[in-house]
Amino acid sequence: MMQVLIDFFSFSDPNIRYVVLGSMLLAASSAIVGVFIVLKKKALIGDAVSHSVLPGICAAFLFAGSKNIPLMIVGAFISGWLAIVMIDFITRHSKIKKDAAISIILTVFFGLGIVMLTYIQHNGYASQSGLESFIFGNAAALIGNDVIVFSVIAVVLVVIVIAFFKEFTLMAFDEPYAKTLGLPVSRLELLLTTLTVLAVVTGITAVGVVLMAAMLITPAAAARFWSDNIRKIVVISACFGAFSGLAGAFISYMAPAMPTGPWMVVASSCIAFFSFFFAPGRGSVSLWWRKRQHITDLNRRVG
Amino acid sequence: MISFWIILTGALVAVSAGLLGCFLVLRRMSMVGDAISHAVLPGIVIAFLISGNREPLTVLIGAGILGLLTTFIIEYLHKKAKVQGDAAIGVTYTFLFAIGIILLSLFAGQVDIDQDCVLYGEIAYVPIDTIITASGVNLGPKPVYLLGGLLVVILLFIVVFYKQLSLTAFDPGFASAIGISTVIWHYLLMGLVSVTTVVSFQSVGAILIINFLIGPPSIAYLLTGSLKRMLIYTVIIGTLIAFFGYHIAAYLNVSIAGCMAVTTGIIFVISFFYTHYNTRVRKKDLVMNKTSQPVETI
To answer: Residue A215 sits in a domain of what CATH number?
Structure first.
């Protein structure tokens, strides 16, 4: 066990270095975007998008006839984006509420993805092996040029968020005010949507489509408990995300056959539950403690 | 005969889930149903590991507990720990689902289900799992009986407690004013949703359960404004989805569960544009009437 740990953390194998850096970077970047998604109360939309990219991935595979990562990213991007647009369209033009619209789009898109996946499997494409790893993720598959492609997307995400930091913050906390200031709110909303889809796309190899939503939401929800300052929240969220990415890469190194997505999610969920209970100031325990102190204080003064 | 059993299984799941789903959609709690159907997975796996077989009762209890626990955790995080509602749902069920998947991959040899089965079930194998009497008469697949029994329970539940269920869905304030506890009905409904999820899980998988919970009720909700009609439409639509979904899947030789989900999508799109067109026509009529009325009064 010790030896494995030393081998892993010495990063002597260049492959490990790539996998670790790649998964930390993509987990951190999606955690950063996630902060704004959670603050805008769109956590469940992230869930819908992450399930909805599957048909795009399969379509790209059918089109190219092999696992072509750049093409798959494009496919995933298109179908994820389409899903968001359709949810918006349904809620705007009918009495269907948002939650139901999200559920319907999620299952229909994912169902379509499964149909295409089984079609690919039953029609004996020679190179289809590994396509299932997109469902639950496999960090060890981040090799060679692919890791560069995903890292570039992750860096682009971070740069865009930093560039529009002020606008996004304003939109998240006070949209009417942002509108009054003359910010192009609907266009910024569109940008945030696009970033959400991009963040999901970065995670499709390492985390898989089913649990990618958690990598957006969970670190951000946890970070919200540690600070009231948006800059700090973003940094903390990125750290939590990076740590989960590291955990996932380590598992992938220890047991290559294991799907890594679930492990990353469990790592970040543990951080989240710890934060919900024990974060100073907002956590349950400290709330309870303060309440008790108030009561004893009152009793002392009255009695 | 094989196709008959598969369609029957699909239809039974669709009707049971859909009837409960109507109340979820009305309470705007679709995503909680979504969460429960993912979160029962660790319960099923643990029950499998403890009992060592797919004894329905153990699995049912294990997963039922997990289902209720999920509802409880979500409520707790939201109300007590002040986590935002949507984030509470998202964090809880992805966590439980991830644990389920990890347990599955750790004990892959000892558990009778695999990752594929979790997502899209093994409805195609339903006809194999038959009950054969001592005299050798084939009575049909086991899951069909389980699902049939469940459907009877759900029908009784809805018929007997129709008043309480509809009141707590439409006007919780009034319901509690006349002494109907919204909390009890909330947990009863969620308990039934988790039981339905568990019973259906092995045959249709998590994704299709969500599809049947929310899909047919939403389509029915689009088409009508009356709860009774909504329930009836849900039954009809669910059966249609099971029927067409199976035939499309058989024709293309692809996943049955996936095809049923796609069929739901197709029916949804058709009814969406149908009602969209209708309401526009009606609005136009309304506008015409309004403008013509003042003329008459003058």
So the answer is: 1.10.3470.10
Q: Is residue A293 part of a domain?
A: no
pLDDT score of B123 more than 50: yes
Q: What is the spatial distance between Cα A267 and Cα A244, in angstroms, rounded to a whole number?
A: 5
As a whole number of angstroms, the distance between CA B90 and CA A119 comes to 31
Block residue for tokens 């020679």: A126
Band (pLDDT 50/70/90 cuts) for residue B297 is very low
Q: What is the pLDDT of residues A207-220, one digit of tens each?
A: 888 788 888 889 99
Please give the structure tokens belonging to residue B96: 């439980």
Contact A67, A131 (CB under 8 A): yes
Cα–Cα distance between A62 and A77 in angstroms, integer?
16
Give the global pTM: 0.87
Q: Minimal Cα distance from A261: which residue of B?
A: B98
Determine the pLDDT at residue B57. Answer: 72
Q: How far is A107 from chain B (nearest CA, A)?
A: 6
B185-198 average pLDDT score: 85
Closest CA–CA distance from residue A232 to any residue of chain B (Å): 18
User: What domain range includes position B154?
Assistant: 2-209
Domain of residue B6, CATH code: 1.10.3470.10
What phi and psi, each to the nearest 5 degrees, are found at residue B255?
Answer: -60, 130
pLDDT tens digits for B136-174? Answer: 666 667 778 888 888 999 999 998 988 888 888 888 888
Taking the C-alpha atoms of residue B162 and residue A221, their distance in angstroms, rounded to an integer, is 38
Which residues are CB-contacts of A139 (< 8 A; sequence separation ≥ 6)? A19, A22, A23, A205, A206, A248, A249, A251, A252, A260
Task: Write down how long chain B is.
Answer: 298
> Tell me, what DSSP letter sits at residue B110?
T
State which H helix or E strand residue B77 sits in.
helix B56-79
What's the domain count of chain A?
Answer: 1
Q: For A11-15, B183-187, B245-249, which range has the lowest pLDDT when averaged over its residues? A: A11-15
**Structure tokens belonging to residue B273:** 């544009």
Region B182-204 average pLDDT: 82
Averaged pLDDT, A56-62:
88
Q: Is residue B251 part of a domain?
A: no
Choose from B20, B37, B95 for mutation: most chain A CBs within 10 A. Answer: B95
Averaged pLDDT, B4-11: 86
Q: Whats the size of chain A, residue-wise?
A: 303
What is the domain range of residue A230? 2-271
A76, part of any domain: yes
Residues whose CB falls within 8 Å of the CB of residue A246, separated by 6 or more in sequence, listed in order: A20, A23, A24
Report the greatest alpha carbon distance in chain A. Answer: 81
Task: Reply yes or no on whether the pLDDT at A127 is more than 60.
Answer: no
* Domains held by chain B: number: 1
Q: What percentage of chain A reaches a pLDDT higher than 70?
A: 94
Of A166, A195, A197, nearest to A183 by C-alpha is: A166
For residue A108, give the nearest of B84, B222, B261 by CB distance: B261
Does residue A300 belong to any structural domain of this protein?
Answer: no
A103–B83 CB contact, under 8 Å: no
For residue B95, list chain A residues with Cβ-Cβ distance below 8 A: 214, 218, 265-266, 269, 272-273
Per the listing, tokens 């939109």 go with: A171
For residue B79, give the chain A residue with the closest CA: A284
